[in-house]
Amino acid sequence: EPEVTQTPSHQVTQMGQEVILRCVPISNHLYFYWYRQILGQKVEFLVSFYNNEISEKSEIFDDQFSVERPDGSNFTLKIRSTKLEDSAMYFCASDPGAETNYGYTFGSGTRLTVV
Amino acid sequence: RKEVEQDPGPFNVPEGATVAFNCTYSNSASQSFFWYRQDCRKEPKLLMSVYSSGNEDGRFTAQLNRASQYISLLIRDSKLSDSATYLCAVTDSNYQLIWGAGTKLIIKP
Question: How close does chain A come to B109, measured CA to CA in Å?
């Protein structure tokens, strides 16, 4: 079964440092997403990406965040100048296309700990 | 009012029992509806899409009530391995998933 792959599984970083979280979506999927989940809280939408550009972003996705798909396979989330409150699980997801009822496929997540 | 609401639980249920989850949503324009299962510190995994006519997959039955804006999930003959958090998700007009906070289910032997 096709999978969404995320690396690393766990990242510890010092406050103020930059981190890059990596994702390899399912190859024939067209839409890509980043979500985060602070421990014990609900899953929160960060950003969606289609046709090599951001299609929608939440208010959480401020100027410290950026995404790109540099080589047609990897989909990265960069967090500049991390803050303590950025500590969370970050999930990448992909979707074959809009207006489907297939649901998203999630990667296993990256646990980001900012110290 | 929250966009997608679920009873947080936990539901403590004996093995073999039937358990039902409900989820209400506020956006009448929502188009797609899903139940996900999330194990502790793991990613959400799609359990079922929910169709207007209702759908069944083994011990799991999902139903949608558009008039009342809720979806339900029924688990029959519950197993210990069903213990998890069950997340309801609906799409908004941009087909973005809006999540409920999840209902924790604990199946007891």
Answer: 25
How many other C-beta atoms lie within 10 A of the C-beta of residue B56? 12
Q: Is the pLDDT of residue B2 over 70?
A: no
Cross-chain residue pair A109–B42, CB shorter than 8 Å = yes
Interchain proximity A43–B34, CB inside 8 Å? no
B107 CA to centre of own chain: 16
Q: Which of A98, A105, A108 sits opposite B95 (nearest CB)?
A: A98
Q: Measure the CA–CA gap between B27 and A31, rounded to whole angstroms.
A: 23
pLDDT (tens digit per residue) in A31-85: 899 999 998 888 999 999 988 899 999 999 999 999 999 887 899 999 999 999 9
pLDDT reported for residue A103? 75
CA atoms within 13 A on the CB side of B69: 14
Which candidate, A40, A47, A55, places its Cα nearest to that of A93? A47
What is the DSSP code (8-state) at residue B44? Answer: E
